[in-house]
Specification:
homodimer, DNA-binding
Amino acid sequence: MPAVRTEPQDRSPEHPAPEAFTLQQILDAVVDPVRRSIVCQLSAAPSPKSCGSFDLPVGRSTLTHHFRVLREAGLIRQYYAGTSRMNELRREDMEEAFPGLLDALVTAAARR
Amino acid sequence: MPAVRTEPQDRSPEHPAPEAFTLQQILDAVVDPVRRSIVCQLSAAPSPKSCGSFDLPVGRSTLTHHFRVLREAGLIRQYYAGTSRMNELRREDMEEAFPGLLDALVTAAARR
DNA sequence: GTTGAAGTATGATCGGCGTCGAAGTATCGG
DNA sequence: CCGATACTTCGACGCCGATCATACTTCAAC
């Protein structure tokens, strides 16, 4: 049976432009406690973090789902480094799309 | 058969103190498009508005539900004036609990 | 190559939330 | 007292999203 190898699939995920951000997507993203925790941990981190470096009470596949929601909303940028997928906040793009929102959210999350 | 009139029930709803606001409740409240529209209309209004003065694509009982969610989150204050229930934003209390958040949300909602 | 580590894809489940309609309550105007 | 108006309450229903387990892919190290 011949090898049915498909072409190596594109591993670079799609990121929306700031003009395409919608408030609905942003809020849908941050309303979930797990995703909000990801945003806060990223905001506090000095450098990008891999998906596995977050300690969160969910399984890996669920985590993949959360990161996709955050990326498609425009909150984070993802890129591969080896087998690891790195994540960082898109602060400037968020600031451009919805000024003050990300700051207010992270600050609010830090209280209580 | 004697009148079975019960005592007139308390029509003044409960409002949480700013210290009791939670970000989760606020986000749960504003993530819904109908409720976010209410907040925006209230923010743009010069004076309190009655529940019925919002034009929204939902039934009356659904509207009641939305106003309760907003009130219990701390976003609005409600009081009766005759048969009408008036609503106003709790701007100062929101600012105290989560500085900048309400402004950022309303501004963001106004864009697009 | 093989093996292991890191994520991704898929399908199923399950609970919560937004919605409605119908019936109930409160207040105001005759 | 009699509507009429303005909301509320109560069930029921339907859908969407968070979660998981399993199987798969990709890359790195040896």
